[in-house]
Design brief:
233 residues, Immunoglobulin-like, four-stranded antiparallel beta sheet, 1 helix, 18 strands, 4% helix, signal
Length: 233
């Protein structure tokens, strides 16, 4: 099983041509070379817990550093097809979650570890890494707060919400927004009340982002309701 971490840089070059492809060159017994299809996989620890995790692809551990709540493992190169993806508590080999996924060639994916830890599960999303138009970025919204009601995402100063009515585990498509240096994203309830927000986010032209709601509405510590942003490219 081969795991490498250059899918993201490869994607940067190929997205410009509206293609997500990376190849692993292998040699047959007859010394004939062929292209091994590759998929990209990033992994996000979105389960509100103090547990540190290890992430495995088939039987190979993929993380070298502690994998803590809100941490992200950047795009890994994986052979396409059926892959067993698993997490365990740090330093153990007993899986907390273990599930087979069929990864399509030449696509990127985001795998979230979600829900309270005692009910932890995976949420796999396919990443549309089509390049934004000039002066634009593209964003996706995901509600990963287990005890929050349906949520909307709003850009401060805009009359219309960017995304609406996303329940736990629900997510939007990627949509274009204007690039800007200091953006405030408000996460609002159905009645328009701002439940949480993230300020001073730099949205760069040509970039692709996921904005996700984290934590628990009932919590008051560092696992409380919040919002986070990560960049795909």
């Amino acid at each position: 099983m081969n795991i490498s971490t250059n899918f993201k840089s490869t994607a940067k070059m190929l997205i410009a041509a509206l293609t997500l492809s990376a190849v692993m060159i292998s040699c047959t017994k007859n010394d004939e070379y062929y292209q091994q299809p590759i998929s990209g996989l990033s992994v996000i620890h979105a389960s509100p817990t103090t547990e540190l995790l290890d992430f495995y692809v088939d039987n190979t551990k993929a993380n070298t550093a502690d994998f803590a709540y809100t941490n992200k493992i950047d795009y890994l190169n994986l052979y396409s097809g059926n892959r067993r993806l698993s997490i365990s508590k740090k330093g153990t080999t007993t899986s907390v979650i273990s599930e087979m996924f069929n990864l399509d060639p030449q696509f990127g994916y985001s795998l979230f570890v979600i829900d309270r830890f005692e009910a932890a599960k995976f949420l796999l999303l396919k990443d549309d890494l089509t390049a934004p138009a000039a002066g634009k970025a593209r964003v996706r919204f995901v509600n990963l707060s287990p005890d929050a009601a349906a949520l909307n995402l709003n850009i401060a100063g805009k009359d219309t919400d960017l995304f609406t009515n996303k329940l736990f585990k629900e997510y939007s498509t990627f949509e274009p927004i204007d690039a800007a240096d200091n953006v405030t994203f408000n996460v609002k309830g159905a009645d328009g009340t701002v439940e949480t927000k993230i300020e001073n986010v730099k949205i760069e032209s040509g970039k692709i982002y996921t904005i996700w709601v984290k934590g628990l509405k009932a919590a008051t510590d560092d696992k409380k309701l919040g919002v986070a942003v990560f960049t795909h490219k």
